[in-house]
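Service request form, structural biology core

Requester: graduate student, group of Dr. S.
Request type: structure prediction, single chain
Budget code: on file
Notes: please return the result as C-alpha cells.

Sequence provided:
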Amino acid sequence: MRFTGKLKTWTEDRGFGFITPTEGGQDIFVHISEYPRGRRPRLDEMLSFEVGLNPQGKKKAVAVRIAEMHSASSRRDSSRRSRDASLPAGGLLRGIVTLAMIVLVAWYGYRQYIRRLPLSNAESTPAQGTRELPQSRVPAASRFSCDGRIYCSQMTSCEEATFFLRNCPGTQMDGDHDGVPCEQQWCN
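Core staff response, request fulfilled:
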C-alpha cells in the first residue's frame, strides 16, 4: 500500500532523512537508495512511498517517488488503461466487419464460379443424331425442385425427369446420353 508524506529532514552527507506521513503517525526513515535515480531530495517536497522494515525491524520508506511524478504517471497509466479497455470492443467490431467482408467475397466468388462451370451434356446443345424434347414438355422451374432423386424409378412423369436431368446434379436417367431421360419408362 502506498502512502504520501513530506520530506521533513535530510542529511546530505549521510544520505538519509525522515518523511512525515500526511495521514499522521511517526516519521518514517528514508535512504537515498530508495529515491528515483538522478533525483536529489528537497525539504518539504511531497513523496509517495511504501513502508518496509529494515534488518532491525524498524519502519523505513521504500520505492519512493516524487508525488508530482507519481500523479502524472498514474494519470498516464489510467488513460492508457481506459484506452486499452476500449480496444476489445473496437477489435471485436473490426473482426466482425472483416469476417462479414470475407463471407461476402467468398459468396460472390462462389456465384461467379458456378456461373462459369461448363454445361453438362444434358444442358448443352444436343449432339448430332440426338433429338430434343418439344418446348411444351419442358417443365416450369416452379413446379419441381431438386430433392436428391436421381433414378427414373423415382420420377412420376417425363416432364419431371426432364427437369431433374437438366437442373439437378448427379442424375442417372439418360443411359444413352442423348439428352432424353427415362426413355423406357416415361419419355418414349
